[in-house]
Design brief:
- The complex is a heterotrimer of chains A (248), B (415) and C (156).
- Chain A is α+β, with helices and mostly antiparallel strands.
- Chain A has a single domain, classed as Alpha-Beta Plaits, CATH 3.30.70.
- Chain A contains 8 helices and 9 strands.
- Chain A is globular and about 45 Å long.
- Chain B has one domain: Formate dehydrogenase/DMSO reductase domain (Formate dehydrogenase/DMSO reductase fold), CATH 1.20.1630.10.
- The radius of gyration of chain B is 22 Å and the shape is globular.
- Chain B starts with 5 loop residues before the first strand and ends with a helix.
- Chain C is mostly helical and 156 residues long.
- Chain C contains 5 helices and no strands.
- Chain C is globular.
- Chain C starts with a helix and ends in a 5-residue tail after the last helix.
- Classes of the chains: A alpha+beta (248), B mainly alpha (415), C mainly alpha (156).
- Chains A and B meet through strand 2, helix 4, helix 5 and strand 6 of A and helix 5, helix 6 and strand 2 of B.
């Protein structure tokens, strides 16, 4: 799985960015200079030509392994006590078994970053939003905490913050606060910096492949073109950006 | 038909005592909201599974009932039924009061009630919630206009009475469609996602609204010792019976439709035959207490000579209605989301499990305070505006309603 | 934490007091003095403009971040925090819970509660704990390896 290692992905996103910068008239005097420009200057990163997505290789995902969940917790600062119905869960491992055949498998479920997200449709204020590059977010600056998006999400991907978030739990790149709704952001802060989501980085089996679904040359697009992949509840027509190599 | 004379609510001690009691309940609701807002929703029974709880049950009931309360005025204005015409003013003001009560409970439950201004300034027009904000605000405007055309002393204004009444009637139909669609348009959940929610909510609003109106009307006239004709109440009671039957019809069709699809049999079995609080509330609460008993009562012989059966039937319709809304809102969420149809699932996030819900005291108080706010606004309004006819005796309202004494004796004998 | 509703009530009360007291107070004397450390460079706008327009700049930036993914740089909230951090007795930057916090020196005085810190961390990145350091290391590692690969001609 070396071809999908995080480093390669970073490199590719970086190259993408270089091309764009050059096109925008930013003269890349030297690679280092351009890199400096990128990290110090604020530029728009949500590119409408892209659609970020994931392919999760559920053929290698093991029940009981929760490295992706742990990585998400560490990255975004949330914690879920066992059995707490009010603690948030941005990503979870689901064990699925077919009672007729006995076949069992395990897979991570998080925000599926739909192309037609029901949560965005129902949000009265527009706080539930889809970025130009397909990442679905909650704009908590205008979220009033009505929880209609939680009623509408077919994947149970969203959580409500039931109490005050202590200062020490807040990560600067992942603000969370009482009375608003939160969910997986596809680690948008990492993606904007040319990185990959924490869960994809943490999976030691390389089962989570992150990339641009719109770019036919991206690894994820090539993998998707070469074999079957599935979306959870594809019948709903929400067109999730997260796909699975196998579903029960 | 005699000319109807309206007058302000009389009484001092009784009036202030009523205000104090209702104000105390409303105040308790505000305190409960403050407590919930201060500590977060952790102090409620609501969770990431049951995201809408008791405040929503009361709020949705009241919002649905509000548009139904206005029906009383519409029956007089739009459908030209003489006996209902004197009730138009009270109906209009009470409709606004009930909507205000429901909305108060709803917005005070928000995670960020301090950001209510955001809901008023930023709109996503694809959201039925956003549309409802317009429909609710518009309802107040349209009903106020309607009330003005009813109460103005100027002929130039009164001539638009019918037009305003028709507008208000159409508006309330759209409003209830919007409320029903909050659930009808939720594609993700097994218990919702049905087009019938909109007409069903309209039918429910007819029965909830008339029941609430009759409770308030009989109470107000009894407490102020104004004449209230039994013929009028009996007639309205029989109409309530028709509405109750219509509401039951829609609920029955909703469940039958959902039950027919194998895909939805799980949730239907859970709600109707699960042997849980939802199946109990559905059969005992909605079907028996909220439908069968009131239906029999309003058509009973004793309803012709006494107001009691209609009053009790109205109370039962409200109880049955709250039960049904509880089944719809809480029951619909208690049944787990189906991500993998036909499969057994488990996770740390309660996948595939029936979600428990135990409402906490503050959230029940907040919800119930919606009723108190509705009653409080109504009582206050009747004190400052001439909304209540001095007499609603049958002879003053519509001579056709008067039953001859001889008939009464005969009926009493038969009963 | 004082509840938002209580805050709202106190805002109205404070507004009333301010209006009544404005005539008496007149030209200053009681306004809080904000200490600004210029050793870290100039702010994005002159102080007078920042006083009046910081909320607009923050709001503009907040929308740019949410919708376009504009992050980092001089106008980021983290940049504000790192320049304006006030050190407490323990030598660490104080959080919004402390009256000494930069934002609170003025905001307490005018009784306007900034909404930012319900969700955002109110101290500079370094103080955000272990997670922050870990993230830093991770990002730097990724950046470094990305740079090396780029300089080597990239993956073919």
């Amino acid at each position: 799985m070396t071809s999908h290692s995080p480093d390669t992905r970073v490199d590719e996103a970086r190259r993408e960015f270089m091309k764009k910068s050059a096109a925008a008239g930013v003269i890349a005097l030297a690679p280092g200079v351009t890199l400096m420009t990128m990290s110090s200057e604020a530029a728009a990163k949500a590119d409408p030509k892209k659609r970020w997505g994931m392919l999760i290789d559920t053929t290698v995902c093991k029940s009981g392994c929760d490295k992706c969940v742990a990585a998400c917790k560490a990255e975004n600062g949330w914690e879920a006590k066992a059995g707490s119905p009010t603690d948030p869960q941005w990503i979870r491992k689901v064990d699925v078994k077919d009672p007729k055949t006995g076949f069992a498998m395990s897979l991570p479920v998080m925000c599926q970053h739909c192309a037609n997200p029901p949560c965005v449709d129902v949000c009265p204020t527009g706080a539930s939003m889809k970025r130009a590059d397909g990442i679905v977010l909650v704009n908590r600056h205008i979220c009033i905490g009505c929880r209609y998006c939680m009623m509408a999400c077919p994947y149970k991907a969203r959580s409500f913050e039931h109490h005050e978030v202590p200062e020490e739990e807040k990560a600067p790149w992942a603000p969370r606060g009482q009375g608003t709704v939160e969910a997986c952001t596809m680690c948008v802060h990492r993606v904007d910096a040319g990185g990959i989501p924490a869960c994809a980085e943490a999976c030691d089996k390389g089962a989570i492949l992150f990339g641009d679904l719109n770019d036919p040359d991206s690894d994820i697009s090539k993998r998707l073109a070469s074999g079957p992949s599935y979306q959870i509840r594809a019948d709903l027509g929400a067109d999730p950006g997260v796909r699975y190599a196998r579903l029960p | 038909m005699k000319r109807i004379h309206y007058s302000l609510l009389e009484g001092r001690v009784g009036y202030y005592a009523t205000l104090a009691i209702l104000g105390a309940i409303a105040g308790a609701g505000v305190l409960a909201a403050w407590y919930m807002e201060h500590h977060g929703h952790i102090v409620t029974g609501m969770t990431n599974q049951i995201v809408w709880g008791m405040p929503h049950v009361f709020a949705v009931f009241l919002i649905v009932a509000a548009s139904g309360v206005l029906n009383v005025a519409s029956i007089g204005t739009v459908f030209n039924k003489t006996p209902y015409k004197p009730l138009g003013r009270l109906s209009a003001i009470m409709a606004m009061a009930v909507l205000a009560g429901g909305l108060t409970a709803l917005v005070l439950d928000l995670g960020r009630p301090d950001r209510l201004i955001v809901a008023m300034t930023k709109y996503n027009f694809k959201s039925i919630f956003a549309w409802n904000i317009y429909l609710y605000n518009g309802f107040f405007a349209v009903v106020l206009l309607y009330l003005y055309t009813q109460m103005s002393s100027k002929f130039q204004v009164r001539r638009y009475y019918k037009a305003a009444g028709t507008l208000a009637f159409v508006w309330r139909l759209i409003l209830t469609t919007g409320t029903g669609s909050i659930f009808g348009w939720l594609v993700a959940r097994q218990g919702y996602d049905l087009a019938i929610y909109a007409p069903m909510f309209i039918a429910l609003s007819f029965s909830f609204g008339l029941a609430f109106f009759l409770i308030m009307l009989i109470s107000l006239y009894r407490l102020t010792e104004r004449p209230l004709g039994n013929g009028l109440i009996n007639r309205a009671g029989r109409l309530l019976g028709v509405f109750v039957a219509a509401a039951f019809y829609f609920v029955a069709v909703q469940h039958l439709t959902n039950f027919y699809a194998a895909e939805h049999q799980g949730v239907e079995h859970f709600l109707l035959f699960g042997g849980n609080v939802y199946s109990f509330l559905f059969w005992a609460g909605f079907v028996l207490v909220g439908t069968i008993i009131p239906f029999v009562m309003v058509f009973s012989k004793s309803a012709k000579t006494s107001m009691k059966p209609v009053f009790i039937a109205s109370l039962l319709v409200v109880l049955g209605g709250l039960s049904l809304i509880y089944v719809i809102i809480i029951g619909g969420q208690a049944y787990p989301l189906v991500l993998f149809p036909g499969k057994e699932v488990s996770s740390s996030f309660f996948e595939g499990m029936i979600n428990p819900y135990t409402p906490s005291f503050p959230e029940i108080v907040l919800g119930a305070s919606g009723f108190a706010i509705a009653a409080l606004i109504t009582v206050l309004a009747t004190k400052v505006l001439p909304l209540m006819p001095k007499s609603l005796a049958d002879a003053d309202v519509d001579p056709h309603l008067v039953i001859k004494d001889a008939d009464v004796v005969e009926m009493k004998k038969a009963a | 934490m004082i509840s938002r509703l209580t805050q709202l009530v106190s805002v109205f009360a404070a507004a009333a007091v301010l209006v009544l007291g404005a005539a008496g107070a007149q030209a200053g004397g009681i306004a809080p003095k904000v200490i600004i450390d210029k050793s870290k460079g100039e702010c994005v706008l002159p102080a007078e403009q920042m006083k009046r327009q910081h909320m607009k700049i923050l709001k503009h930036r907040r929308d740019a971040t949410m919708y376009q993914g504009v992050r980092g740089g001089k106008r980021s909230l983290q940049a504000c925090l790192s320049c304006h951090a006030v050190k407490g007795d323990d030598g660490k930057p104080v959080t919004i819970k402390s009256e000494k916090h930069f934002c609170r020196t003025c905001h307490d005085y005018v009784a306007v509660r900034p909404d930012c810190w319900d969700c955002h961390v109110s101290v500079p990145d370094k103080a955000a704990g272990r997670a922050a350091l870990k993230h830093r290391a991770g990002t730097m590692r990724a950046e470094a390896s990305g740079l090396i690969k780029y300089l080597e001609g990239g993956r073919k």
